[in-house]
């Protein structure tokens, strides 16, 4: 049996032989095929940031006269309105909040909240869930817009100069004795988000005038809706010589950012013998919780320090 000869496909498709380069397809995403997969689209990110900035400015300008009026009108509106302002502001800029635990018991007296400090975003996240006033450095009061908002929120400004340390400590003590809860950042500065800096014992000098002390942990654990890693921390962490405007611009271009706030068990200041012990114990609780959140482990409110005799 004779086998028929195979057809010469090469001569039948001369154009196939003339193609010297492989086929190239344009990726649907901008940039390189894989490099841009996890990044925001440049145009969409800019439009998102502009929209958020405009909405935040309009909301702030609308709230400033309202809070100014509440400051001179009797009632509790002056204390509760800032919480509403910060809560809406977080929603406008796309910052989601997850709260674990609960604030101190509904008992008379002020609460001294102690929290780690990572970014200017901390003020928005904590202000949205706590009825308390912040303690900030005096320079914040001179910042455009931020300073006005801080003053309307009845923020306590401290200069940290040795000549005024006593007067400022007495002012903080007076506010605590008057039943006004305060929020302190005892690290003294912002960290890079990869660790919690040691707590300074000097910040705990007014703890004895509070009815209770409650440790807080704040970690930005989601970026783009996914668990945040080391490469994502500079997006939320504001530290070193970072400029506020450029940092805010880069942050507001992103989506899916979430902050988790863990409210640990509150305790009476008398449960610990001195402020140095309190700084160590509270720092230990906050650091352990922050490490668990950075490792994407479940957020759990930790127990209060064990009472120790002097």
Q: Which sheet architecture does the biggest sheet show?
A: 8 strands, mixed
Structural class: alpha/beta
Mean pLDDT: 84
Kindly report how far apart the N and C termini lie.
108 Å
**CA-based gyration radius:** 27 Å
Order of helices and strands: HHHHEEHEHEHEEEHHEH
Strand portion, in percent? 5-15%
DSSP, total strands? 8
Tell the overall outline: globular
Point out poorly predicted stretches: 31-37
Helix content: 25-40%
> How many individual helices?
10
What does this structure look like?
This protein is α/β, with parallel strands linked by helices and 310 residues long. Strand 3 (133-137), helix 6 (146-152) and strand 4 (156-158) form a beta-alpha-beta unit. The protein contains 10 helices and 8 strands. Helix 3 crosses helix 9. The model is unreliable at 31-37 (pLDDT under 50). Strands 1, 2, 3, 4, 5, 6, 7 and 8 form an 8-stranded mixed beta sheet that branches.
SSE topology sketch:
Layout lengths: L8 H4 L1 H5 L23 H31 L4 H16 L2 E7 L9 E5 L5 H7 L5 E5 L8 H7 L3 E3 L6 H13 L4 E3 L27 E12 L2 E2 L5 H4 L7 H9 L4 E7 L11 H20 L16
Parallel strand pairs: 1-8, 2-5, 2-6, 3-4, 3-5
Antiparallel strand pairs: 6-7, 6-8
Task: Sum this structure up briefly.
Helix 6 links the parallel strand 3 and strand 4 (156-158). Helices cover 37% and strands 14% of the residues. It has helices at 9-12, 14-18, 42-72, 77-92, 121-127, 146-152, 165-177, 233-236, 244-252, 275-294, and strands at residues 95-101, 111-115, 133-137, 156-158, 182-184, 212-223, 226-227, 257-263.
């Amino acid at each position: 049996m004779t086998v028929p000869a195979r057809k010469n496909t090469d001569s039948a498709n001369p154009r196939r032989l003339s193609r010297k380069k492989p086929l190239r397809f344009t990726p649907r995403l901008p940039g390189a095929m894989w490099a841009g997969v996890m990044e925001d689209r440049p145009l969409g990110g800019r439009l998102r940031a502009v929209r958020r900035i405009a909405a935040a400015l309009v909301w702030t300008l609308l709230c400033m006269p309202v809070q100014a009026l509440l400051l001179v009108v009797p009632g509790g509106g002056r204390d509760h309105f800032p919480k509403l302002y910060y809560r809406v502001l977080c929603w406008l800029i796309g910052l989601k909040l997850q709260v674990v635990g609960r604030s101190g018991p509904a008992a008379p007296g002020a609460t001294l909240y102690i929290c780690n400090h990572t970014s200017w975003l901390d003020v928005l996240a904590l202000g949205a869930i706590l009825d308390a006033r912040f303690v900030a450095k005096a320079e914040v009061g001179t910042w455009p817009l931020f300073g006005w908002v801080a003053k309307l929120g009845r923020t306590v400004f401290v200069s940290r100069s040795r000549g005024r340390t006593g007067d400022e400590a007495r002012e903080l003590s007076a506010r605590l004795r008057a039943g006004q809860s305060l929020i302190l950042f005892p690290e003294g500065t912002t960290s890079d988000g990869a660790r919690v800096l040691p707590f300074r014992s000097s910040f705990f000098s007014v703890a004895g005038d509070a009815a209770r002390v409650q440790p807080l942990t704040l970690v930005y654990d989601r970026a783009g809706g996914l668990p945040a890693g080391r490469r994502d921390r500079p997006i939320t962490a504001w530290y070193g010589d970072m400029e506020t405007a450029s940092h805010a611009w880069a942050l507001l271009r992103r989506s899916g950012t979430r902050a988790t706030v863990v409210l640990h068990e509150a305790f009476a200041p008398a449960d610990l013998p001195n402020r140095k012990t309190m700084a160590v114990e509270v720092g230990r609780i906050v650091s352990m919780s922050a490490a668990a959140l950075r490792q994407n482990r479940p957020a759990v409110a930790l127990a209060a320090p064990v009472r120790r005799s002097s």
